[in-house]
Structures are given as C-alpha cells and as structure tokens.
Write a structure and sequence with these properties.
Layout: E1 26-28, E2 31-33, E3 35-39, H1 48-67, E4 73-74, E5 76-81, E6 92-93, E7 104-107, E8 118-120, E9 131-135, H2 137-140, H3 151-164, E10 178-180, E11 187-189, E12 198-202, E13 228-232, H4 274-278, H5 284-289, E14 312-317, E15 324-329, H6 335-352, E16 357-360, E17 372-378, E18 381-384, E19 393-396, H7 403-413, E20 422-433, E21 438-444, E22 452-458, E23 464-468, E24 474-476, E25 482-485, E26 490-495, E27 501-508, E28 514-524, E29 533-544, E30 547-557, E31 560-563, E32 566-573, E33 577-583, E34 598-603, E35 610-620, E36 626-632, E37 643-649, E38 654-665, E39 686-691, E40 696-702, H8 705-710, E41 715-722, H9 727-736, E42 744-751, E43 759-764, E44 772-780, E45 793-796
Parallel strand pairs: 2-4, 3-5, 3-7, 5-14, 6-14, 7-9, 15-16, 15-17
Antiparallel strand pairs: 1-2, 8-9, 10-11, 12-13, 17-18, 18-19, 20-28, 21-27, 22-26, 22-28, 23-24, 23-27, 25-26, 29-30, 30-31, 30-34, 31-36, 32-33, 32-35, 35-38, 36-37, 39-40, 40-43, 41-42, 41-44, 44-45
Helix pairs in contact: 1-3, 6-7
Length: 800
C-alpha cells in the first residue's frame, strides 16, 4: 500500500474550479508537459511495459499533432510506477505524482477480453474531464483487435474527450442507429460527416444481407428496421474526419469542422450523435479550437519533424514511506474549541489505532521530510498542505462541536494514503431520551474487506449497545470484540471478518437523562478477490450570479460503472439550512451520460453567504445494483467491432457515506438576472413514432430535475421546423426568432401533466404539410425564463 499523503478536497475559501480533479498538465508553446501516466498496483511488475508506454505515447504525440492541425504534441511525460514494483537505479522518487491525480491510468486487463481506451468526464463540451483509462493489453497487443495497428488513434480519441470534452460521433449501445435527414428526406446513419461510406445490413442472419429502403423501412418510425446496422468501411474512404467517429476507419486523421468547401471534413450538424446532442450541434473542431488551449490564436500552427515530436520521459516510483500526521493548534485558539478537537483526535486514535496521529505544540519545530503531514487548527478551520495545488486544503467545521470535529478531523487525516482503502460505510446520529432504546440497520456488501469497525460516540454517560449479525449472532459491550475508552467517550467493536447482509444494532441506557450518540461503521476496500467499490464526490460552482453548483458522485467497481444505486447529497449551510437532494444517472439535467455510474445534480437554492457542507450517501438494499462491464471479443474479424455489455450484480446491501467538499461563499447578490433560467437544458429529445393514422408525432425526453422532485406540471416552448435544410439556422431561430433557411418554422407553448415520471412523452400534431419535421424545446421556469435550447430531433411528417 502506498503511504504518502494525498489531499483531494477543494478549497474552502474561494470557488471550486473543477469537478474533475487538479491537473498538473501544462500546455504552452504547442507542448503538453507534466502529463502523468500511472500504472495501477493491480499490474504485476513488468519492466517491458515501460518501453511499451514510451512507444505508444510517442505514436500518440505524432497523431495528436496531425489531428490538431499541427498545433499540439506531447513533450514531457512522467510514468508513475506503483510501490509494489521493485526499486531500480533508473527510477526517480515520486514527489507530487499520485495515481489519483494522474492523467492516464493503466489497469489490469479483463481476462479473455479487450477494451477501448476510455475517458471519464463529468461535463464536456470544452471542459476537461477526470482521466483516460487504459488496460495493459492496449500496450501488450496494439496490433490485435480492436486496435488494428492504429492504437494511437484510439488513445487520441479518448484523450480528446478527456482534455477538450468532445464526444462520440457514432451511435453507441442502446442508441438509435439512424435518423431522418433534413437534407435527403430519408433515413441516414448517424456519422460525423455525410461523405462517410459504408453498408447498411442486417445483423440477425447467418449470411449478411443488405437493408434497402424498398423493403427494410419501419412504417411507424420511417427509419430502417431494428435489425439493420450501419457498417462504415474500414478502408476505401475519402473522408478525413472525424477521429471521434469509429476509430477503426483508417482514413480518419482529424476533427470535423465548419468548412463547407471541404466535404472530407465538414461536420454533420443534423445527426443526433452524442456529441451533437450534448454540445449544441457544434463541430468537434469548433469545440477544441475554442478551448483555452487554442482560443484567440493560442498555440498557432508550428512545423515540426517526426523526431521533434518524440516526447521525453521520466520514470518515477511511488513512495512507500509511512506518513505521520501531526496536529498543531494556534496558541490563541479558544479553549472550548481546542477541547473539542482534542476529543476528536482521541476518538480517531481509538477508531484507527492511529499512533501516526499526534498532537504537537505550536512552537515545536516541525520535522522535515515526506513522512510528515502537518494539520494546523485555526479557530474552526483545519489547514492541510495542498498536494499538486498552489494552496492549502481547508476543512471548515462551522460553529458546531462534538461529532463535527471528528468528521472534519477524520476527513483531513484520511487524506494520508496510509488510509487510502479506508471506507465509511454508514454514519448516523441518535437522540437517546431516558431508557427508550433506538435501533437501526446497516448493510454490508461483498466488496468490503474482511474486517469492519463500529464506533459509538456518546456525550456524557456510556450507553449499552447490542449488535446482531445477518446470521443472528449477538455482540454486546462485554464481548471480546468490544473496547471502551471513557476518556474519548467511545465504544468500539472491531471484527476481523465481515458478514454480507443486514446488520442491526440497538442502543439503550439505564439513565433517565438525554444524550446524543453518533455511530460510524467503517471497513476497507481490501477484498483481494473482488475489485473495490470506489466512490468519488465532486462539486463545482458553475455560476456566480445567481449561484448554481454542480454536484457529482462517481461510483465504480474497478474500472466499471455501478448502476442502480440510490444516491443523495445532504447540503448543510447557513441559517440552519439542511436539504437533501436526489442525484440522477439518467442523462438528464446535470447528468451528461446515462448509465455511466456518475450521479449528478444542480443545486441552485443558495440562501445567503457562508460555509456549505456536502455529505454524499449511496444506499440500495436489493438485487438491482450491478456493475456494467463493457468489453469486446478478442476474435479477429473484418468489419464493425461489436461491443459486449455484461451486467454483474453486486451481492449484499450497499451503503457508503462520503464527506465531500466544503465551500465558502461570500455575501453577494443572488437575484435572478433578466433572461436567466434556473432550468436545465434537455439533451435527449427524440421522435419515437410518426403516426399517420392519427397525423401525430410522439416526442420523448428526460424531465428536468425540479419537475421530478416537485411533482408539478411544466411549461415548455416548442419549436417546429417543416422541411428545413440547415440545423444551425433552425437553432438560431430558437434563440433569436430570426430564420434565414429554407422551409417554415414556428413556435408554440406546450404544457405537460403533473407527474413524477422521469421521461416525458407528448403527442404533437403538425400544423402544415411537409416531408420532414424538426423539433427543439426549451424549459420555461416559474419566473417565465427559458432554458437553453435542447438538441434537435427529426421525424417524417405523418401529414405528408
């Protein structure tokens, strides 16, 4: 286990600047520097992997130079090896580099299967993501399926999504493959440019047969039948774009753009690809070139030779030294506040068996070296040194005492990578009134380590506690598993085993007095036979006037997303604010991608300035939680690559409790600006049926978050186009009311019924005859302001 300090919590004073993580990447003079490629400790030591990484990253440098039109390449790359690998004279010692802050992470492959490089991102469309994830077989067998000797293109595809927030321009699993084209009036395949060539064929027969418009069109949708697929030719293409389309197409070498004069690169604005839906139908090069990397002439074209595009590499090994945590107090600190922190430290020492946590006098000389982590307590704040960041991390406990001290001190101490696998399963708070007992249930799932610890913190006098395991065994404070520390007022049950299922506990006392009892159940992600369940909270203030915050909870098991969870966030703020929000993974509102294990939500109801705390929870008792494994067959074949989706259930009830960021907001104007809408943009509008017998079109979309929460009806502004030929002109009409394209456009108001349904379905009757119809909508909030325009959906007009 790595033993160096890691601090991930965002600054308390000021605003969060990213929902991904701090990045050490520097991009200047066309050069990417300080790119960290980390090898996960699940990979057995293999010295040849280092040379393979160098070779692949060199090829990627040359490819990204071409893809960005000679404006970017990789210059300096650091390869971070785990401390489970042996030391070597050629390896340096890692300083600020950690796998948690790496830009590229290499993990162990899935036995017998292949996988694509993939990017983890929470926002996109010009905003940087979290990291690129690769498996080791990407480097071991770059010439095998699915990479086909073009592995650099696969890496740059993922890196572009990570760095610049562009998305796929082909249909993914579960998405529509075809759409009604405004230009041709017939079904077309979803692809990055019109000129991309390929076959439309059936995939449910032993012998491949073509799908023709004469015999393969579904009369309900006007599209090709469900068993028809689009297969771009791997070769024989004249198109050069886009690398965000199928990577196996050999001719693709750059991003699609807005140059209508070049049919080989011009963007297909009308296709309902993920990129178009999420990024307002802008071309990928428009997104990339308008990031800070290239905007306003930054990093212009530079002519370089192949040898000049070769990166320099530094290989470092993660530290394995144990790190002590030293806590020092400001001598002017109020005694009552200091007493609360001292109690918290004693409780943590009892909870963690943490001899590494020590209190020192403010005047004492602090030992130097990487094996010391200094926490400084000032008033109600804990300051910790920032790793990979220019400022200290700040933990604010507010004007509260008791368990809040323990939570914030634990949060600061646990950033020490000595406790990297430490997991808070559950936390609860109870008010004991006299002899009336309280009881509760906690879930233990199969991914947790073979040990767990229950901590019961009390205020005044020691209560009694009975624990019952899923199999019925009962443990009380007299059992061998229990220790009591009256100095810190804590009761500890430590088990060197876990039992999957529901654990129950009862707390009671013989006194008639009242007191509060705080319960924390901890374990670790150290189950050697299963990948750990990893939960990463993130937050970002995305708007200052009026204030709006993006809240994220990213849940994975190994490299795979975990679906089916009930994810919530508790928001505590000034004036006794205490709000619980449901987080969604449905592809609507704040959530970028549906079913990717990223649960998201906007928080917009800031009352006043002050400190806001975010505590995230996941919980699900039942058989509906599973990891979604996405892989590809190893078998070689000539044709489109088939994705394999495997759902693997996770046994046992799942719970996690994660203390997220604290943020300080100064007093400010939080009034609503004219024309501003608090509603989310809809990104999954689509037409599902065109009913000729009813002369109607059925539209669906994911409802805004507030509509689902409040069970209220919503108003929408609906825009309809008849036989339009330019999506950009149609979108301009939705924003300005001016239309300069062909066909006819109109605007109307749409009211939906009051319902808690996450997906809205409405019936639209055309107002005029045409062959094709275009649709886009805006949400109208309670103040009468409109959201941003949705994506554009197309359909055949049933009245044609």
């Amino acid at each position: 286990m790595n033993m160096y300090i890691l601090l991930l919590v965002v600054l308390c004073f000021g605003y969060s600047i990213s929902v991904s993580r701090p990045s050490t990447i520097v991009f200047e003079n066309n050069q990417f520097k300080n790119v960290v490629v980390a090898v996960h400790d699940s990979i057995a030591e293999d010295g040849s992997l280092i040379d393979k990484i160098k070779n692949e990253m060199t090829k990627a440098s040359k490819y990204i130079y071409k893809a960005t039109r000679e404006r970017a390449y990789f210059k300096e790359i650091t390869i971070l090896l785990p401390n489970t690998w042996s030391s070597h004279a050629s390896y340096g010692q890692a300083t600020s580099e950690t796998i948690q802050l790496a830009d590229v992470i290499i993990t162990d492959p899935i036995r017998g299967k292949r996988s694509f490089p993939q990017a983890r991102s929470y926002e996109g469309c010009g905003k940087q993501g979290v990291h690129v994830l690769l498996t080791k077989e990407f480097f071991d067998n770059p010439s095998y399926e699915p990479y086909r000797n073009d592995s650099a293109k696969y890496f740059v595809h993922a890196f572009a999504q990570f760095r610049w927030g562009v998305f796929q321009e082909y249909s993914e699993e579960g998405e529509e493959v075809f759409y009604i084209s405004f230009n041709s009036g017939y079904p077309e395949a979803i692809k990055c440019i019109y000129g991309l060539r390929g076959l439309i064929e059936r995939n449910d027969t032993a012998i491949t047969t073509p799908c023709y418009p004469a015999n393969s069109i579904d009369p309900v949708t006007g599209l090709y039948e469900k068993n028809c697929i689009w297969s771009p030719y791997p070769t024989r293409q004249r198109a050069k774009a886009s690398i965000m389309d199928h990577q196996y197409i050999t001719a693709l070498e750059t991003f699609c753009d807005d140059n209508k004069a070049d049919f080989m690169t011009v963007h297909n604005y009308e296709a309902p690809s993920k990129h178009n839906r999420l990024c307002e139908h802008r071309s990928t090069w428009d997104i990339v070139s308008n990031t800070q990397d290239f905007k306003d002439g930054n990093n212009p074209i530079i002519g370089l030779t192949d040898s000049q595009l070769t990166p320099t590499f530094k290989v470092v090994r993660a530290s394995s030294r144990k790190k002590r945590t030293l806590v020092r107090f400001n001598p002017l600190l109020e005694e009552s506040v200091k007493s609360g922190f001292i109690t918290a430290i004693r409780r943590l020492q009892h909870e963690l068996n943490a001899e590494e946590v020590e209190v020192i006098h403010h005047e004492k000389m602090i030992p130097l070296g990487d094996d010391v982590n200094i926490l400084t307590v000032e008033k109600h704040l804990i300051f910790a040194p920032g790793q990979g960041k220019p400022n200290d991390t700040v933990y604010d406990i507010g004007q509260t005492h008791g368990h809040r001290h323990v939570d914030r001190m634990r949060q600061a101490v646990l950033q020490n990578e000595l406790y990297n696998d430490y997991v808070i399963v559950s936390q609860s708070e109870f008010n004991l009134v006299g002899r009336e007992p309280v009881d509760s249930t906690v879930g233990i799932d199969e991914t947790l380590a073979h040990h767990m610890t229950y901590m019961f913190y009390y205020d005044t006098h020691m209560p009694f506690v009975d624990l019952r395991s899923p199999s019925g065994a009962i443990y009380d404070i007299k059992s061998d598993f229990c220790t009591v520390d009256t100095d810190s007022k804590s009761i500890k049950f430590h088990f060197s085993f876990t039992e999957v299922g529901k654990w129950t506990y009862k707390i009671y006392q013989s006194s008639e007095l009242s007191q509060r009892v705080y319960v924390t159940l901890t374990s670790a992600n150290e189950n050697q036979s299963l990948d750990p369940l990893t939960v990463r909270p993130s937050s970002k203030l995305i708007q200052e006037s009026p204030r709006a915050m993006l809240l994220i909870l990213d849940v994975t098991q190994g490299v795979h997303p975990v679906l089916g969870l009930n994810a919530t966030v508790l928001i505590e703020g000034p004036d006794s604010l205490r709000t619980v929000l449901q987080l969604f993974d449905n592809g609507g509102g704040a959530d970028v991608n549906k079913n990717d294990g990223v649960y998201s939500r906007y928080f917009k109801k800031f009352i006043t300035g002050g400190v806001y705390h975010f505590t995230f929870k996941i919980k699900r008792y039942g058989a509906n939680v599973y990891q979604r494994e996405q892989t590809y067959n190893i078998d070689t074949f000539d044709g489109p690559i088939k994705k394999i989706i495997t759902k693997r259930p996770i046994k046992g009830p799942i719970e996690r409790h994660i203390h997220g960021d604290s943020i300080f907001l100064p007093e400010g104007d939080n009034t609503i600006s004219p024309g501003f809408s608090m509603s989310s943009r809809i990104t999954d509008l689509r037409s599902v049926r065109s009913l000729r017998y009813r002369k109607s079109v059925i539209l669906t979309w994911t409802a805004p978050e507030d509509e689902v929460d409040l069970n209220k009806s919503s108003t929408y502004e609906l825009f309809v186009g008849y036989d339009i030929d330019d999506v950009r002109q149609f979108l301009q009409f939705t924003n300005t009311g001016v239309y300069n394209g062909k066909g006819n456009v109109q605007r109307e108001t749409l009211q939906t019924n009051s319902t808690c349904a996450a997906v809205k379905t409405v019936l639209i009757m055309p107002k005029r005859k045409s062959r094709t119809m275009a649709f886009s909508i805006k949400v109208v909030d309670d103040l009468g302001s409109n959201s941003l325009t949705s994506n554009v959906a197309s359909a055949l007009n049933p009245w044609r």
